[in-house]
Each structure stands twice: as structure tokens, then as C-alpha cells.
Design goal:
GO terms for molecular function: 2 iron, 2 sulfur cluster binding; metal ion binding; oxidoreductase activity. The chain is α+β, with helices and mostly antiparallel strands. The protein has helices spanning about 5-30, 40-45, 70-80, 135-140, 150-165, 170-175, 190-200; strands at about 50-55, 60-65, 100, 105, 120. Bound molecules: FE2/S2 (inorganic) cluster (2 copies).
């Protein structure tokens, strides 16, 4: 590896590390309540300033005491350790945090956990069948639809929502359906090929 490429790969790693630290920091800074066993939660009154919420995530009901301003992505990553869902902008702009709510793609950084009650929440982990990748994930691997991979879970979830709505999309449909998900590596052509490939798998 040349000195120049060593430097650039190092800086990319540092950048990703920086992103990771920022994400962890922002979540740690949020005031998320301590997890309690279910029976205790149901008996106990919420601590001051918190509310008891129930979320259905990947088919399982979970209850938490949270401050009302807690976002869905904070609960997913910090409380449920479902860290496949990524945070980049934390501002409803990039789509890295995309999950499904009743089959529709939403930005989980831009949604309060309290508002996700009563919906079926699906994260990237919920697409797996045991250890088996979902056909969409296989299509991304087959078509090389990623580079650093940081945006990939959000891209896959957006693609899942698109294919649920439109199982046989045209290239234009895919372009439009995936337009809410940014990729800093600009892997767009292969991401689109991956979604079209997944649509062929019945
Ligand atoms: S992290 Fe949620 S939209 Fe960017
Ligand atoms: S693959 Fe790197 S940000 Fe999309």
C-alpha cells in the first residue's frame, strides 16, 4: 500500500471512528431511563418526567420508561442493542436510520419512540431468518451495493418498503423510492442494481 493510500485509508477509519463516537456520545447524553424487568415496570410508577411505553419491535413487545422526547433510534440502539440501525445526521436528512413502521420507511432519528406505539417496527435485524440473510441483503452482496457499508442498513430498509409497495419496480421507481437515502460513498448505481436484482427474486 502506498504512503498516500495508507493515509487515506487511515483517515477514512478515523472518520468512521469519529462518526461512531459521535453517535455513542449523543445517545449517551440523552436521558434514557434504566431498563427494568417487565413485572417491575408494570407495577412501578414511571420516574418523574418519564412515561411507560410499549413498542412492538421485530415481532416482540417491549416496555420501557422513557422521557417523552426520546427518539425511536435511541430506544432501538441503546435499549434494545439493535445497532444495525445507524445514525449519521440525526436530523431526518440522510436516511441512515431508516426502519419500517407498518411496512413504511421512516427516519427513526426523527420520530419519537412514544409515537411509534401501536405500530409494527421492523429493523434490519428483523429481516434475518435465523442466521440466513434476507433476499434483499443477498442482492446487495451479489451486486456489490455498498462500499463502507454505513448507509447500507438504511438503504436495505428503504428498499424493503419500496418492494412491499411495488414488487416489480422500474429503474425510475427505484430511483424515486430510494431518493431519501444518501450514500457518502456514492454507491448509487450498484444500490439501484441491488434493488432491481432483489425484485427478481420471488
Ligand atoms: S440519521 Fe436519521 S435521517 Fe440521518
Ligand atoms: S456505502 Fe458508504 S455511505 Fe453508502
Amino acid at each position: 500500500m502506498s504512503e498516500q493510500s495508507k493515509k487515506s485509508s487511515l483517515s477514512r477509519r478515523q472518520f468512521l471512528k469519529g462518526v461512531g463516537t459521535g453517535v455513542a456520545g449523543s445517545i449517551a447524553a440523552s436521558k434514557i431511563a434504566r431498563a427494568l424487568p417487565l413485572e417491575e415496570l408494570e407495577k412501578a410508577s414511571p420516574p418523574p418526567g418519564q412515561v411507560l411505553i410499549t413498542l412492538k419491535v421485530n415481532g416482540r413487545e417491549k416496555r420501557f420508561h422513557v422521557e417523552p422526547q426520546t427518539t425511536l433510534v435511541e430506544v432501538l440502539r441503546e435499549r434494545l442493542q439493535l445497532t444495525g440501525t445507524k445514525v449519521v445526521c440525526n436530523h431526518g436528512e440522510c436516511g441512515a436510520c431508516t426502519v419500517l413502521l407498518d411496512g413504511k420507511a421512516v427516519y427513526s432519528c426523527h420520530m419519537l419512540a412514544i409515537d411509534a406505539q401501536g405500530k409494527e417496527i421492523t429493523t434490519i435485524e428483523g429481516l434475518l431468518s435465523g442466521e440466513e440473510l434476507h433476499p434483499l441483503q443477498k442482492a446487495f452482496v451479489k451486486k456489490d451495493g455498498y462500499q463502507c457499508g454505513f448507509c447500507t442498513p438504511g438503504q436495505v430498509m428503504a428498499a424493503r418498503a419500496l418492494l412491499l409497495k411495488k414488487p416489480n419496480p422500474s429503474r425510475e421507481d427505484v430511483l424515486e423510492g430510494m431518493s431519501g437515502n444518501l450514500c457518502r460513498c456514492a454507491a448509487y448505481p450498484k444500490i439501484i442494481d441491488s434493488v432491481l436484482e432483489a425484485a427478481k427474486i420471488k
